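U., I forgot to send this yesterday:
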Amino acid sequence: MKKTARFSIILVLAFLWQHCTDDPAPARPGTIRFALRPTVAASQGRMATSLPDGASLYVSIRREGGDDVYTLEPVRLLKLGEEYISEPLALPGGNYELTDFLVADAAGDAVYAAPKEASELAPWVDDPLPLAFTVSNNGIAQVDVEVLPTDVYQPAQFGYVTFTVEVMLVPRFRLAVFRAGDSSAEFARVYAYLLSEGDTLLQDYLPAAINDIEFSGSLAATYTLVLMKESYKTYMRTFVLADLLAELNGTPLQVTLEDALTFTASSRSPYFGFTMQTGRETTPFVIHWGDGTEEVLPPTTSGGETYLPQHTYAQPGQYHVSVAGDLAAVEYLSFTDTQSDRYSLRALPGLRSFSMANTTGADSVDLSHNPVLESLDVAYSDIRYFDIRNNPLIRWMSLEGNADFPVPVLDQIILDIHDHAFEQQIFNGEINLSAGPGQGIIGPPSPYPMDRLGHMGELSWTIYQ
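Result:
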């Protein structure tokens, strides 16, 4: 007769964000909570049993056919009558597999374990690990896990190398960072700083998973957490560690990143500045300048507004800058006469004019998310690589002064702008391909693209070369 303890695990996905608008809300991460009701097989049926005082659950979960999300993650248990309720775990919607399942006492010694497939004890349970389950945005998934006591068996008989689990007596805090995916929230890899009184306690990339943020410091001290990722608003939070731990109550700190205009500013003069113009009323914009300084730009209250944000850095360096807010209203953006790099224009779907004239640093720019772009100026810049296949409305472009522009890239740009102009019937456009005063055309283009340039005259385009 099998002597097993069966745990029914109810995976409850609860939305933590509420919106009061008619617009469809972006996918947000949920939380999963385990509900356990332990019973032991007996000759006359199943009888309720109890877990040791201070018992915790340790689980490993991975994406179906993919990477690990949790690895022997400690999950605290609270007894409610004959049932045990776990602390919530952050997990986006998707398909997953439960790969490890241990119940340990307060000392970290495993008292129950779920056998794995192909192990000696696998035949003792109906469904050994791994167990597949699906988490949906608005649903409940149920997984039944059978466990066996570990007191008379060895880990290898369950399919484990060891039952040893790490008991963290004073865990700092855990962090889960998400970004909106196509249909649900996804874990995001970020660059993180943890600062305290001018000292940098943490400075590293964090993987797309639940991360333990551990550092030596006082519970009463004040810390600042900074999270940065290209295309997303910089996240900053200042907290007293004891207060944060009390607030989280064992759950991870959950951060959902917000879309933003991002770039790297190189401080080589007293200040760094750029120009941004909107075409309608907006909410305020928030700029994180990359040195811990946050600036709020006032909202646009009329048909449009021109912003000239400038910032002075204390010392030269490379600074990750993010601009968040009503970015769909931004129609004009210029970094003329700056030293900057790593532009992400993904959050600017309404951008009509973009200038990087006389800039140094960046050799490429991604314009694939700017479908209404009409004007592009990269004259006398380091830009050598860009693609306008997704920019069918361009009617003005300057590559003047870029004498060493790669010919294959130039050829494709000419063919694309030619095809777009005829497909969209765009008249009176301009292209400046001059290498400089008296220096002829950049490239020069291959014969067929040069022939296409000649055809542009049919639409009254002006070609400077």
